[in-house]
Structure formats: C-alpha cells, structure tokens
Amino acid sequence: MKHIATFLLLAAACFAQSPLACNLKALTPAERQHHAALGRKLRAAAAEVKELPNGLSFRISSSLRLTELADWVEAERKCCPFLDFTVKLECEGGPVELALTGREGVKQFLLEEFGKKSASAPGGEL
C-alpha cells in the first residue's frame, strides 16, 4: 500500500501545472537584460495583435530576425512555463506570426500583461 501511495504522489507531481505567474528567478541578470532588449525589439516589430480563444497572436514585421524571435521564445519559456508558443512562417516571405496560448486562465493573464497596454502592440516583457 505504501508503494501505491508513493506512486500516486509521484504521478500527481508529474501532472501538476505551474502557476500562472512569471518565474523571475528563471533567468540570470544577464539573461533578463538580453530578454528585455529582445522584448523591446519584439514590441516594436508587432504589427498586429489578435485575440485567440485561448491566448493572443502577434503578427511580426520583418524588422525582427527569426533568430531574435527564437531567443526571446527560449527565454520566455523558462520564466513562463505555462505558455504554449507557436511560430508560423508563411511562404513567399509572408508574415511571421507568434501565438502565445495555453490552458484556462492564460488568455486573461496575457490580456493583463500585454493586451491592455496598446491596441496594436503588446506591452509587458514582450
């Protein structure tokens, strides 16, 4: 019986969800500084913001390199592990789209962090 209880606790831990809050200790001070600089570039490159059923989508202008977007996503994944990231690259050099989505509560979190700052560009750390 003891082994079953241990197994159930371990299984519950594997399926536990992280809180809907940024982990400010996930990045070193140097990483945070680089992430913030990329966030400013990303904000400037956000040509359009759309609400999705479970998050937000940003159309990114070509002023932001894909490597910069990838660096931002990599760091953001560390501090906000509850987010799902989708990068869509359209053919023929079309627009780049970044979607931030997730479970229940994520859209509201994103609206509070990014959506209310501007109708056309996200704010916060983005």
Please report the distance between the alpha carbons of the first and last residues. 49 Å
| Oligomeric composition of the shown chains | single chain
Instruction: Estimate nothing, just give the exact number of structural domains.
Output: 1
Q: What kind of sheet is the major sheet? A: 4 strands, antiparallel
Low-confidence stretches: 5-13, 117-125
Count all strands and give the number: 4
CATH topology: Gyrase A, domain 2
Q: Give the overall pLDDT as a whole number.
A: 83
Whole-angstrom Rg: 17 Å
Q: Beta-sheet strand percentage?
A: 15-25%
Q: What would the principal axes of the Cα set say about the shape?
A: globular
Set down the secondary structure blueprint.
Elements: H1 2-15, H2 29-45, E1 46-52, E2 55-60, H3 66-79, E3 84-89, E4 96-101, H4 106-115
Antiparallel strand pairs: 1-2, 2-4, 3-4
Helix pairs in contact: 2-3
Describe what this molecule looks like in 3D.
- By secondary structure, this protein is α+β, with helices and mostly antiparallel strands.
- It contains four helices and four strands, in the order ααββαββα.
- Strands 1-2-4-3 form a four-stranded antiparallel beta sheet.
- The protein is globular.
- A hairpin with a 2-residue loop joins β1 (46-52) and β2.
- It has a single domain (23-115), classed as Gyrase A, domain 2 (2-Layer Sandwich), CATH 3.30.1360.
- The chain has helices at residues 2-15, 29-45, 66-79, 106-115; strands at residues 46-52, 55-60, 84-89, 96-101.
- The N and C termini lie far apart (49 Å).
